[in-house]
Structures are given as structure tokens and as C-alpha cells.
Amino acid sequence: MTPDSLPTPGGDAVIPVSVLNRAISTMLERSFLLVWVSGEVSNFTRAASGHWYFSIKDANAQMRCVMFRGRAQYAEFTPREGDKIEVRALVTMYEPRGELQLNVEAVRRTGQGRLYEAFLRLKAQLESEGLFAPERKRALPTHPRGIGIVTSLQAAALRDVLTTLSRRALHVPVIVFPAPVQGAGVSAKLAAMVEAANARREIDRLDVLIVCRGGGSIEDLWAFNEEVLARAIAASELPVVSGVGHETDFTIADFAADVRAPTPTAAAELVSPQRVLLLRELDHRHAALARGFGRMMERRTQQLDWLARRLVSPAERLQRQRVHLRQLASRLAAAGARPVRDARAHFALVQYRWERKRPNVEAHREHVLRLVGRVANERSRRLERDRACVSELAARLQVLSPQRTLERGYAALIDTQTGRAMRTPGALKSKRPLTVHLAEGSADVLLADVQSRLS
């Protein structure tokens, strides 16, 4: 199903997703020509098949890219994560997943953009002067008497052109005007050969001139972007066919020439007799079919790579499970040993603290015995001191005792009625009962008469 054959919005037809994706992919490939896209490389992967898968991004967006092995093997460098690059790509869709992607044909570093800016400035200048005007272009001869070729003798493009001309127009003589096609000062040498071919056009019976070289980077093709060569081609009296690089390569020489050929081989086909038009159309159809088949095969290989990444062999799965099982066993052993180790450490700590806190019975017993001895000694000394003190107090008491006073011949008079001691003679009254205390007893007396006597 093609995009034109899809049902209209008002129709009721139902189509599978695969058909819709195929129609979108076809529409994208027809609508978007090869373009240069710049960005930063991310998620770069080289598959086992040799294909490159990566994304290019800038500050606001990103796009998935695929570069198949047939083109990746001719890349001048392998992009790395974070590289600033420019890719020449076709906008396509990966149908199985419905994802938009860039099918990369070529890749270059971003620094090459400065040469492209210089290319655009020179192109605009020469175009403003009318060097590229369509009315200046001349038709190629139908049956050229001779064909001139300006290129290097060592160039692979020369072999391709000669092979093509010998196959298609063996009867037409070919004159080669050798000149280097890469390096410093090459443009002037190429321009000199163009002028030499024009100078010998009548001598060598030349009717058309091919300026060609093989493909390469923009630096490799820069000799064909110089002003001196463009002006020499524009001033040529011979119709010039430019066949520089690949189909997607454009140079200033292409615009200055009368006819631009996509490749050196195509340039040889253009200057061949017109009877090959049908063969050329057949070749174009074959090339289109080959490109379509190639893209289909590339999509299939991309799908195969995607499925291969998802597929895991039983041996690998068992190995992963073994590794996972060993990890779990190690974690289980560590988890089981940790409580035992922690408990032992805690027990050792408690034992150490208990050993520090456990009383020393023998030391305490010795200390108690020392204390007992000290108490006994102290008690004996205190008892002796108390005995001495009691003896002293007893002696003092004996000295101060009233009994001793009485024993010395004194007597104590006590009022029998009041119980008070008689201290002064005035307290004595006649006929008053008294109790007299003597050293060996006491006696009750009654005073008959009291005569006071002053001492």
C-alpha cells in the first residue's frame, strides 16, 4: 500500500499498523531529500553486525540515527560520546517500532562547516556575476568526435571513466589532460589543464570535456571549490561535464560546468552517444531497486539487531542466575554471621565490663580483717583511756565527795521540814528539828537554843 492508496479521512477502511508505518516511511523517504544535520553524539553503540546506532542532540531536541555497515566502514573516524558532528542522512522510519530515525550516509566533524560557509559565499558571489546562469549552459554533443578528461592519472575515477567509455563508446578517442586533484595549488593546475584542452580542441578534435575525481571529504574536494577553476570552466569553449565525488557531493565546479554528473562514471555516460539513454534508464531503475532492496535489507538487519539484543541464550541466562545465586548465598551467609558476630562482640564487652566490676573477695577480706584489727586496737585503746579517765574522775570525785568532807570532821545540817541545807547561822532557829549528817551516819536533833557568832 502506498500513501496515495491509503483510505481518505471519511472512509471506513481499517488498515494494520504495519501498513500505516510502511506508508509513512515511504512518504518520508520521498518527501525529505538527503540533508546535513549537526548535533552532539550520545548513546553510541556498534552492533556485532557492524552497524552504528546513536543519537544526535542539541539543547532542545534529539534524533535517533543508524549508519549501516556498508557506509560505516568508509567513515573517516568513529564518533565518540559528546563529539560534535554533522551527518548527511535520509529521514526514515523504523517500521517495527514506529520510530523516526535518520539513515546516515556520511559523517564528518563539525569543524568542516567553516569550509561549507566559504563554499556558500563563493557560490553566491559567482552566481551574482552570472557564471551559473542557465542561458550560458550548452547542450552536450550527441555524437562527440573526441572526449577530453581532466583528472589525475592515478585517480580511480579515471579508471572508472575509461572503463565506462570503452564499454559504451569504444570508437570515440579519449585524451587525458593530467593534473593533481588534491593538495595545495591544485586548482590552478586544473584550470591550466582546462585551458590546455580548449587550446587543443581543434588539433585533437575534441567536442566535450570531463572534469572529474572520486569522492572524499569536503577538504579532499576543496580544489573544485576554488574560484580560479570555476572561472576557467565557465570560460571554456568546450562543453564541460563535471563529475566530482559521489551523487550527494556538490562543488563550485558543478555549478560552473554545463552539465553536472553525480559521479565520474555518470559523467562518462552523459558524454556517450544517445543510444544509451534506454540503458541509462534501465540502470537508474536498477539502482533505485537496489537502493530499495538495500534499505529493506538494512531495516531487516536493524530489526535483527534489535531482536538479538533482546534474545538471551539459555547458557547466558543460567550463568546470570548462577551469579545471582552466588550473590544471594554470600548475602545470606553474611546476614547469618552478622548476628553471631555481634552477639560475640556484645558478650565480650559485657564480660569485660563484668570482669572490671566483679569484687575482689580476697582483697576485701584482707581489708575487713585490717579494719577489724584496727577496730579491736582502737577499742582496747579507747577502753584503756576510758578506764584511766574513770579512775581519774573517781579520784577527783573522791577528793570532792561530801563523804570525804564529813570524814574530816565536818557535819551537814539539813532542815528536816524543808530538806534544805543550813548555810548561815541566821537560818538556825531554836526548837527547830534538824538532821545532822556525819561521816558515819546521821542524827535528828532539836536545837534548844541558838547563839549566833560572827566569824
Automatic annotation (TrEMBL):
InterPro entries: Exonuc_VII_L, Exonuc_VII_lsu_C, OB-fold_nuc-bd_dom
Keyword Nuclease tagged: yes
Domain of life: Bacteria
Keywords of this entry: Cytoplasm, Exonuclease, Hydrolase, Nuclease
Reactions this protein catalyses: Exonucleolytic cleavage in either 5'- to 3'- or 3'- to 5'-direction to yield nucleoside 5'-phosphates
Record-annotated OB-fold nucleic acid binding domain positions: 16-107
Transit peptide as UniProt keyword: no
Pfam families to which the protein is assigned, alphabetical: Exonuc_VII_L, tRNA_anti_2
UniProt enzyme class: hydrolase
CDD domains with a match to the protein in the record: ExoVII_LU_OBF
TM spans (from-to): none
Main localization of the protein described in the UniProt heading: cytoplasm
GO molecular function, one term: exodeoxyribonuclease VII activity
Enzyme Commission number(s) of this protein: 3.1.11.6
Subcellular location: Cytoplasm
Exonuclease VII large subunit C-terminal domain boundaries: 131-444
The protein's assembly and partners: Heterooligomer composed of large and small subunits.
Functional note: Bidirectionally degrades single-stranded DNA into large acid-insoluble oligonucleotides, which are then degraded further into small acid-soluble oligonucleotides.
Family note: Belongs to the XseA family.
Listed name of the protein: Exodeoxyribonuclease 7 large subunit
